[in-house]
Amino acid sequence: MFEYLKLQAQYVSNDPNYLECNKQERKKYNNTASEVATCSGTVSFHVINIRTDIEFVFFAGGFETPCILTRSGPMKFSNPNEPLHGHVSSTDSAATSMRLTWVSGSKEPQEVRYGDGRALTSTTTTFSRDDMCTSILPSPAKDFGWHDPGFIHSAVMTGLRPSTAYSYRYGSDSVGWSDKIQFRTPPAGGSDELKFLAFGDMGKAPLDASAEHYIQPGSLSVIKAMTDEVESGNVDSIFHIGDISYATGFLVEWDFFLHLISPLASRVSYMTAIGNHERDYINSGSVYGTPDSGGECGVAYETYFPMPTSTKDKPWYSIEQGPVHFTVISTEHDWAENSEQYKWMERDISSVDRSKTPWLVFAGHRQMYSSTDGLFGTDDKFTKAVEPLLVQYKVDMVLCGHVHNYERTCSVYDSNCLAMPSKDRNGIDTYDHSNFSAPLHAVIGMAGFSLDNFSQPRRWSLVRISEFGYLRGHATMEDINLEFVNSNTRQVQDSFRITKGQK
Ligand SMILES: [Fe+2]
Predict the structure, then answer these.
(1) CA of 303 relative to ligand 1 center, distance in Å
(2) Domain Purple acid phosphatase Fn3-like spans what residues (predicted)?
(3) Ligand 1: distance of its center to the CA of 290 in Å?
């Protein structure tokens, strides 16, 4: 029964083009009129290797009252141990080492071979149904959404040079090898240039007519547009700020997500922050006691996306790339004054060497400012607790998601505009931080999840766009240029710039 939940086709009679009935045959006649007609047709599926057997079941009656017409019987993947979904992430600001993480059905150590004949053996980890959270009502993760993740392999490639291309492949002679892939290390912290992409709330969508339990319709166009950017060589690194796959307890959907982001995440550093849909669950230690992770309570996220954090379930870290210091927090873990995370973020942002990395970007999943009310409304307690630190330590820009649209503020503190950007000679909104008053905030949760409308314009809100896309950033020692790119039209729909007044 479990497999039906994982590969559900759409209800054919609702969608006449779904199954093309092109070979018709009349079977039974009553005088000259045919009483029974049959036909045959084909349906194609894009199937991801999920390691366990799958079965195709053809049914009528819809999901509520399915009536099975025929079934294929269990089908095996030819190589359930195939090494798949390799993705790279930074381990530190020197950019001389990079972590590669991949998935396989085999727990035997494998290798990554990279550069000029270097090789490293992987360490493996996994998680079990017992690691999932549940409550009085069983969570999907623990119950009908569980799927064995196989083994997650990881190896840190060392001895690299920053801003340099390397090729690699991973696997072993017994399980097979990945294709040869080329990736590029990001620029070292303190070097003079960084090109990055940032967004939140991307998720996934099927590549065929299948239904998944949770579909983010914009994800495919955003991934395609960003893949084109990566292929053009214009991207050093990517930041995905929470609400990653929306597997939310239907664990096989992590494999679907990892497959989709592979053209991006296998080539440049893919850094993440945790969101409510990865972490939150009742009585599990998350700030918000909602069931949004479907019982995953951060375990799957942490296993698939090992970030340079201090230990398990403390998913906050900082990383420097080029002239930017990124402080990445978890809005889902205690951020109250005197909490461990609060102390860490104060220590981190107060100790940034601004002569080395003049730009300080603070990223976390939930927003402090949004003109969208309702379900994703702002938690004033979070804003009150953390916002003073951002002003005190001169954070230039706050990036967040959670709300599914794009919005940019003035230099804002306590809901007041302390400064407005001015137009530069090209007509671009420019925030002059040589005379710093407060950070600007950008909501960038428009990367896949169904878009949100804006409730009402607020005085601190300068730009509001409800379209799928991503933020493109280009930082130098003098300024950061940022653009909101619409992934469908590829048009830049908002541009702004932060300077320290040198220009
Ligand atoms: Fe969210």
Answers:
(1) 19
(2) 8-79
(3) 11
Taking the centre of ligand 1 as the mean of its atom positions, its distance from the CA of residue 350, in whole angstroms, is 28
Which of 34-48, 268-282, 386-400 comes out lowest in average pLDDT? 34-48
Mean pLDDT, residues 458-469: 97
Q: Cα of 257 to ligand 1 centre, how many Å?
A: 17
Residue 202 Cα to ligand 1 middle (Å): 10
CA–CA distance from 101 to each of 3, 12, 120, 270, 317 (Å)?
26, 38, 12, 11, 18
Band the pLDDT of 1: cuts 50, 70, 90.
very low
- Is there a contact between 267 and 328 (Cβ–Cβ < 8 Å)? no
Tell whether 94 is covered by a domain: no
**Coil, strand or helix: which one is 227?**
helix
Distance 271 CA to ligand 1 centre (A): 17
Ligand 1 centroid – CA 183 distance (Å):
30
How much distance in Å is there from the Cα of 38 to the middle of ligand 1?
48
Residues 202 and 58 in one domain: no
26 occurs within a structural domain: yes
Cα–ligand 1 centroid distance for 365 (angstroms): 7
Which residues make up the environment of ion ligand 1, defined by Cβ < 5 Å? 243, 275-276, 402
- Give the domain-ending residue among 32, 56, 71: 71
Output the CA torsion sign for 347, 348, 350, 352.
positive
CA 154 – CA 102 distance, rounded (Å): 6
**Domain CATH number, residue 436:** 3.60.21.10
CA of 432 to the centre of ligand 1 (A): 31
DSSP secondary structure, 337-392, as one string: TTSHHHHHHHHHHHT--TTT--EEEEE-SS-S--S--GGG---HHHHHHHHHHHHH
Q: What single DSSP character describes residue 263?
A: H
Q: How far is the CA of 403 from the centre of ligand 1 (A)?
A: 7
End-to-end CA distance of the chain: 64
* Ligand 1 midpoint to CA 310 (Å): 24
Query: pLDDT tens-digit profile of 150-182?
Result: 999 999 999 999 999 999 999 999 999 999 999
Distance CA 270, CA 266 (A): 8
C-beta separation of 407 from 461 below 8 A: yes
| Domain containing residue 51 | 2-71
What is the reported pLDDT for 2?
Answer: 34
The pLDDT tens digits of the residues spanning 185-210 come to 999 999 999 999 999 999 999 998 77
pLDDT, one tens digit per residue, over 40-94 is 777 778 999 999 999 988 877 777 788 888 899 999 999 999 999 999 999 999 9
Span from the CA of 189 to the centroid of ligand 1 (angstroms): 29
